[in-house]
Amino acid sequence: MIQSWPTPSPSAETLLVRRDGDSVLYLNELRHRQGTALLFSQALDDRELPAARAGAGRHGAGHGGKDYRGVSVLAATRPVIGTPWHLVAKIDRDEVLAPLRNLIFWVSLVATSAVLVVALLLLLLWRQQLRTHQLELAAQGLEKDRLLRFFFDLPFVGMTILSPDNMRWLRFNDRLCEILGYEREELVDLTWTQLTHPDDLAADSSQFERVLSGATDGFQTDKRFLRKDGSVIKATADVRAVRDEDGRVDFFVATVQDITARLQAEGFAQEILDNANQGFVVYDRALRVVVWNRFLERAIGLPREAAIGKHL
Description:
This protein has 312 residues and is α+β, with helices and mostly antiparallel strands. It is 37% helix and 27% strand. It has eight helices and 13 strands. The N and C termini lie far apart (138 Å).
């Protein structure tokens, strides 16, 4: 019975020992050492040795220690009633803890795998949401670009985006090309300043300088442009600045409307009125003079420049 163990085990064994003076004597043949029965003994004062504790009368279950091999074990000891013998049942600690270590290993592996899978799913979800957001922004950007292109392609007025550094045309529509008489490939190599009439350059530069300095965000002016064919056109230009977060001008947005034909028509109408042999005046609802012909200048003695804008 002592030489057997109830379950398969590579290290467990039962020992029968008794006290022999200051030693503990092993009575049975040991599993891991041959020729030891009634011959092999160890010191009784070895507190780590389960057999020594049993020989000294300290009994109990689940105690740790090191056996006769110096290997860490878990042991239980009991006295054999009516004899000086003591029974020791022991098993290597590593054998006992091996299933627990395996369980911890597999539980840790499964838990780590689960965490990694969840993290991967969260990462994929986050990337999907990020991609969806980017697609939404791209769609919004495309819609804005479409509206901007539509706005730029309106045939009623010339439109352009100007660089504040060198006044080059960063972008412009077909109507501006028609007004200035240049093809797109030609206009892209020119600047706003190059096509401005020399007599208007000083006033034009002054207006742009006020915007760049922050004194104003834009201006409207009547000015002259030089067309490709050498002719001069009169235009109304409306310039607005787009600034960055620091307040510096990022670019200018300008609309250009050709008013040459309108001014010619107004001049023709004024000439007809000036040749009429009677006084002719046009005034608005506030009774301010809008048109004043030469006959009235002669008859009343008030020049046209002085009459325009005055209350009737």
